[in-house]
Write a structure and sequence with these properties.
Radius of gyration: 16 Å
Strand order of the largest sheet: 3-2-1-4-5-10-9
Number of helices: 7
Order of helices and strands: HHEHEHEEHEHEEEHEE
Helix content: 25-40%
Structural class: alpha/beta
Distance between the termini: 26 Å
Shape: globular
Number of strands: 10
Strand content: 25-35%
Length: about 210
Amino acid sequence: MDKSYWNEKYWVRHMRDDDLDNIEDFWIEKYEGIIAAKSGSLLDLGCGVGQYSKHFAAKGFDVTAADISARALEYLSQSAPEIKVLQLDMTKPLPFADKSFDVVFANLSIHFFSKAETEALVAEIKRILKDDGLFIGSCNSRVAYKFIEHKSTVIEDGFYLEDGGRSVRLFDKAQFDHFFKSWQTVVLCDVETVRFNKSKFMWEFIYRK
């Protein structure tokens, strides 16, 4: 992944324009009943500035917040110094021992990778989850293709290069069936929501190891 994009473009823009502690659609609240059955260690993978990390820490989880952006992690460290932070690149093996976490959470962070990279990442997430652990997250929906079809090129099925140079994967049901075929599906829901005051089409998912 390109660290410079997240440090010098994405978070520079959103740190300037947005209330970073405000989440327009706090979708995770819909699944609190499922999550409440879990406790212990949680990895927020692609945590950004840590709004969800703070939420899970307040619920009693021992949170490790990981992201590729040093700028985002610096903000999180200053606003919530009690949360452990770690800079990492999700295209590399995750630097954790087998069965380290009860929950892995990934909000809009696993949809930037090729098919091979996504397969490797999902395998790594499964490796670091404890038995019966949950992988909870969200990712872009194929419905959103209408927003990028005139400013992107196809790299492979469902995976695109946008004019700005960022690659993005748009998930459909078939892709979930492929990447998560060895997992137990708890929740898989295609939704329309709002993010940064714009319509957002995404999937919400919970898988059990």
